Amino acid sequence: MDAITQDLVCEVRGKIGFVTLNRPRALNALTLDMVRGLMTALLAWRSDPEVVAVAIRGSNKEGVFGAFCAGGDIRFLHQGGSTGDPRVEDFFTEEYALNHLIHTYPKPYVAFMDGIVMGGGMGISQGAALRLVTDATRMAMPETAIGLFPDVGGGYFLSRCPGHTGEWLALTGETIGSDEALALGLADARLEVAALAPLWDELGSGSAKSGADIKNLVATRSIANSAHEISARGQIDHYFSLESVGAIVGALEASAGEWETKTAAILRKRSPLMLHVVLEQIRRARTLSLADDLRMERDMVRHCFHLRPGQSETLEGIRALAVDKDHTPRWAPARIEDVTSDMVAPFFVSPWPAHAHPLAALR
């Protein structure tokens, strides 16, 4: 199938299904229509014997590559969440189903993760058979900054990062580059930025006729990986293994170290309630399958918008960051120390019986 819409370009060249996210002014932030278009293309290509693999990239204001995907369209989520638009529910259900399809796709799926790769952009790339990064890659799951949690399977893939780096990434929302992404198992190979377009074109030339051909082609273009390490790995594992958010922040603030001081300051800016929710999410997800994690996250996101009428951390966080842009969210509770277990527990109670869950079909 070939389909060209304003925000998504899907085409077949050679034996490859190519996807270009084409909403550069919004850093290719995903809309419901883009989620639906990508799902439609992947389902069609899955059963098409003439398509042996899929490749996906983003675009920027000057052309292609340079930006992959900054996440979901948070302005839509704020407007829809504030007015009760049912498409907000549809967006999360369909996005998570898409994430599951990518993780379980039977054909090689190659993600060109150049530039910004955040939030929903991680959701459509972490399940790839080949996750390609560059020196321009800026990767993060920054949801705690908007009163949300690392969704799109974030519980699943962050909890499987080495040691307690998953808790660190989830709670702080820190941005990492290609070296850190490779070290944490969130990328498979690094390419020079200049190699992206030639590789994309070569994939479409018809020379790659199988998954093995594609992997060999990528390998010839990749920069040899050194033994990448996270510079603060010792501190991360020490502090982020502690039993609670209060213990983590207390220990960080009790230290005179520069890294500790900076990290504690970041956490103090995040939603106190959602920090506690996120720590619980990551630790629960370590023992969950992808499907069960996505079902848990679907429960959680429903609660983010509807658990406390008129008091959504997510709507307030988006308001402060992207709508009014005053960068002074009024979190409730305002302090990490004021969050109780009774506030956190309801996020992990499903509003649906198992048979009626929106993602009941995921396996």
CATH-assigned fold name of the largest domain: 2-enoyl-CoA Hydratase, Chain A, domain 1
**Termini Cα gap:** 27 Å
% residues in beta strands: 5-15%
Number of domains: 2
Strand order of the largest sheet: 1-2-3-4-7-9-11-12
Q: Based on CA inertia axes, which overall geometry fits?
A: globular
* Name given to the CATH architecture of the largest domain: Alpha-Beta Complex
Number of alpha- plus pi-helical segments = 16
CATH domain class name of the largest domain: Alpha Beta
Amount of helix? 40-55%
Number of strands: 12
Question: Care to describe what's here?
Answer:
- This protein has 16 helices and twelve strands.
- Helix 1 (32-46) packs parallel to helix 3 (87-103), helix 2 (74-83) packs across helix 15 (313-323) and helix 11 (245-254) runs antiparallel to helix 12 (258-269).
- The protein has helices at 32-46, 74-83, 87-103, 120-123, 154-159, 165-172, 178-183, 193-203, 211-221, 233-240, 245-254, 258-269, 272-285, 290-306, 313-323, 341-344; strands at 3-4, 8-13, 16-21, 53-57, 59-60, 63-64, 109-113, 116-118, 130-133, 138-140, 189-191, 222-223.
- The protein has 363 residues and is of the alpha/beta class.
- It folds into two domains: 3-223, 2-enoyl-CoA Hydratase, Chain A, domain 1, CATH 3.90.226.10; 234-356, no CATH class.
In a nutshell, what does this entry contain?
This protein is α/β, with parallel strands linked by helices. It contains 16 helices and twelve strands.
